[in-house]
TrEMBL record:
Zinc finger regions, C3H1-type: 162-187
Name of the protein described by the UniProt record: Putative ribonuclease ZC3H12C
UniProt domain C3H1-type: residue ranges: 162-187
Stretch list, region Disordered: 185-204
Organism: Cathartes aura
Bias type Basic and acidic residues, positions: 195-204
Amino acid sequence: IIRNFNVCFSHGNKEVFSCRGIKLAVDWFLERGHKDVTVFVPAWRKEQSRPDALITDQEILRKLEKEKILVFTPSRRVQGRRVVCYDDRFIVKLAFESDGIIVSNDNYRDLANEKPEWKKFIDERLLMYSFVNDKFMPPDDPLGRHGPSLDNFLRKKPIVPEHKKQPCPYGKKCTYGHKCKYYHPERGNQPQRSVADELRAMSR
């Protein structure tokens, strides 16, 4: 799930809402074989560019909408005042429910404080990035040097290398079952639930 505001203003040097930034980010994921890419953009961004809200390459928004990649979040005018929905909530909710990742340089503190399962998800599934001219560049170590590689991070179910798994101190006597955070070699390669599945189960 790509956060349009971050991406567009990063590419537009924080001065212009550059729709080309969205396309560069989307193309990066599509070229890597990711098919389920969603961009949220407030509907008012369809309006004509103004000096106080500069926007470039708006035709890209329409094209991505036709390709079912971009979704406009609702907005309307009430007595001359623009009323907009909080698009960050759309982003976090969809990413959590679809076990995806969030592409943003924001840390969503307000939403992380709303629900503990959202906080854990945001901590573990947020992908930061930079633009170097027209090159979209996420880090090779999205969660720091001791975290997963970028390729592993982008998996729905990241693989933890055997040598990095810490054996459970209780061994076969462990009573935590699949909730145990330690490695149990005696259980073999039983499928582990994804981060989002675990959080949903805990919140029930």
